[in-house]
């Protein structure tokens, strides 16, 4: 019974294939006005309105699915562009930081060569934190006693004097800046050799004072101040001579005082320190 059913289905399938081949042969062999072509045109005339109506009815559905697809594509594109923008922003920040650091290292190298600081075994360090005060009176660096850093060693950057080491651990140190109220630097006016002591002005982080300059000493705006490298009666110098400190911006000559009030703007931009050097062998002293 099963074999007869299978043979019947095969016979029907073969018959359908043969009929299809005959119809296709007849269709392509006849002229456009033949009966088969007429049947096709009639079928299309009947079906076309149905197809058009169905297409119009389904258009909102297609548009809705298209809108969802376009929205998803737009969100993916937005997310991709946002990621690319963030990556570009990170790269720009990294490049700017690298360029700034490279410029500071270049200036440090120039200062080392100009003043012969290589003999003082400079240790290059990065600033890792700043004190949370308005004046940034101290900064922390990523080098310490394991690198030869000790308390009281001078610290410079490519522009000039920054401060001194006031505390050190094996891997880090604290640098007190020259704008801190405890700071005092024996210094001279580079153009005249007039000596004094540089101290911070109270409440003015960008203003230093060259103290103990007598009224008769010739001091002018634009002259530069450098470390004296010698011991005064008030301060023992921790700094080698000739390190740039700042430029004289104003001189107050008060008649009732025997001293002039000399204002100095530091060369080093103490709020923008990224790279500094600790001079670990100052004044030919002990290591």
Summary tags:
single chain; 287 residues; alpha+beta; Thrombin, subunit H; 2 domains; six-stranded antiparallel β-barrel; six-stranded antiparallel beta barrel; elongated; disordered C terminus
Would you write up a description of this structure?
This protein has two helices and twelve strands, in the order H-H-E-E-E-E-E-E-E-E-E-E-E-E. With 287 residues, the chain is α+β, with helices and mostly antiparallel strands. The protein has two domains: 60 residues, no CATH class; 172 residues, Beta Barrel (Thrombin, subunit H), CATH 2.40.10. The protein has a six-stranded antiparallel β-barrel. Strands 6-7-8-11-10-9 form a six-stranded antiparallel barrel. Strand 4 and strand 5 form a beta hairpin. It starts with a helix and ends in an 8-residue tail after the last strand. The C terminus is likely disordered.
């Amino acid at each position: 019974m099963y074999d007869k059913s299978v043979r019947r289905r095969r016979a029907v399938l073969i018959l359908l294939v043969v009929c299809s081949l005959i119809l296709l042969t007849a269709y392509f062999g006849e002229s456009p006005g033949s009966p088969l072509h007429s049947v096709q045109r009639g079928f299309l005339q009947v079906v076309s309105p149905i197809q058009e109506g169905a297409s119009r009815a389904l258009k909102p559905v297609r548009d809705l699915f298209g809108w969802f697809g376009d929205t998803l594509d737009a969100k993916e594109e937005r997310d991709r562009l946002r990621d690319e923008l963030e990556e570009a922003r990170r790269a720009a920040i990294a490049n700017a930081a690298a360029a700034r650091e490279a410029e500071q290292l270049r200036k440090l190298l120039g200062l080392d060569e100009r003043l012969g600081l290589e003999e003082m075994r400079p240790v290059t360090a990065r600033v890792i934190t700043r004190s949370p005060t308005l004046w940034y009176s101290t900064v922390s660096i990523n080098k310490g006693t394991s690198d030869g850093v000790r308390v009281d060693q001078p610290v410079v950057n490519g522009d000039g004097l920054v401060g001194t080491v006031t505390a050190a651990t094996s891997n880090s140190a604290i640098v007190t800046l020259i704008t801190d109220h405890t700071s005092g630097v024996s210094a001279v006016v580079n153009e005249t050799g007039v000596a004094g002591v540089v101290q911070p002005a109270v409440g003015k982080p960008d203003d230093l004072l060259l103290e103990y300059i007598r009224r008769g000493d010739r001091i002018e705006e634009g002259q530069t101040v450098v470390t004296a490298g010698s011991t005064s009666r008030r301060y023992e110098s921790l700094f080698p001579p000739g390190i740039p400190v700042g430029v004289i911006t104003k001189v107050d000559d008060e008649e009732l005082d025997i001293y002039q009030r000399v204002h100095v703007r530091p060369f080093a931009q103490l709020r923008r320190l990224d790279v500094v050097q600790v001079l670990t062998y100052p004044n030919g002293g002990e290591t």
